[in-house]
Amino acid sequence: MTIAVFPGSFDPLTNGHLDLITRASHLFDQLIVAVGQNTAKKGVFTPAERVAFIEQSIPDLPNVTVQIETGLTVAFMQQCHATVLIRGLRNSVDFEYEQGIAGMNHHLDAHIETVCLMADPQYQFVSSSLLREVAKFGGDLTTLVPVPVAQALAQRLGSDRP
Ligand code: ADP
């Protein structure tokens, strides 16, 4: 049985993330979405809120679970007996970034294989950080994130509008 982990900030979950979760769930026996905190990024939603958004959005994927991850992803994966680390690639900037992380993770545990899935072209421009910016100015995000996420973004960030 192959267990895969998809780690990320998911602050918040986007339809691009959701597409990757769905596709990875078809490739592996079990998929654990690991909600962590990228120390370089300031969070808008708490880890528990981010987990809730993901759980609400994946009811039809029985082999997917969601957990909060603190610490090193490789340590989390060892605990879960996971051997595949899923990441997404939207463009060459993502590639450079993911190449470095994959190299470090391989150095830390050579049994872990990073598998990068190409972003669906319709979501290549979608990032949580850009969506947070658009939400601040009241832009319509309804086709880019699940409905509860769009509502929460508008509530949390819409009021920051200058
Ligand atoms: P992190 O802070 O760990 O990069 P993110 O939530 O920003 O967390 O991204 C998690 C993973 O999802 C990364 O591999 C990223 O490249 C990928 N990803 C982000 N947005 C998209 C998208 N629109 N389509 C496909 N993959 C994406």
Task: Characterise this structure.
This protein has 162 residues and is of the alpha/beta class. It contains six helices and five strands. Strands 3-2-1-4-5 form a five-stranded parallel β-sheet, with helices on both faces. α4 (92-108) links the parallel β4 (84-89) and β5 (113-118). The radius of gyration is 15 Å and the shape is globular. The mean pLDDT is 94. Residues 8-10, 14, 16-17, 20, 38, 41, 87-88, 90, 94, 119, 123, 126-128 line the site of adenosine-5'-diphosphate. It is an enzyme of class 2 (transferase).
Note the main attributes of this structure:
5 strands; 162 residues; alpha/beta; nucleotide-binding; 6 helices; Phosphopantetheine adenylyltransferase; binds adenosine-5'-diphosphate; coenzyme a biosynthesis; 5-stranded parallel beta sheet
Strand content is 15-25%
Mean pLDDT: 94
Structural class: alpha/beta
Ends: how far apart? 52 Å
Total number of strands: 5
Biggest sheet architecture: 5 strands, parallel
EC number: 2.7.7.3
Site (Transition state stabilizer): 17
Subunit structure: Homohexamer.
Protein name: Phosphopantetheine adenylyltransferase
Compile the SSE list and pairings.
Blueprint (H helix, E strand, L loop, with lengths): L2 E6 L6 H13 L2 E6 L11 H11 L6 E5 L4 H8 L3 E6 L2 H17 L4 E6 L9 H9 L10 H11 L5
Parallel strand pairs: 1-2, 1-4, 2-3, 4-5
The protein binds adenosine-5'-diphosphate.
Adenosine-5'-diphosphate binds next to helix 1 and strand 4.
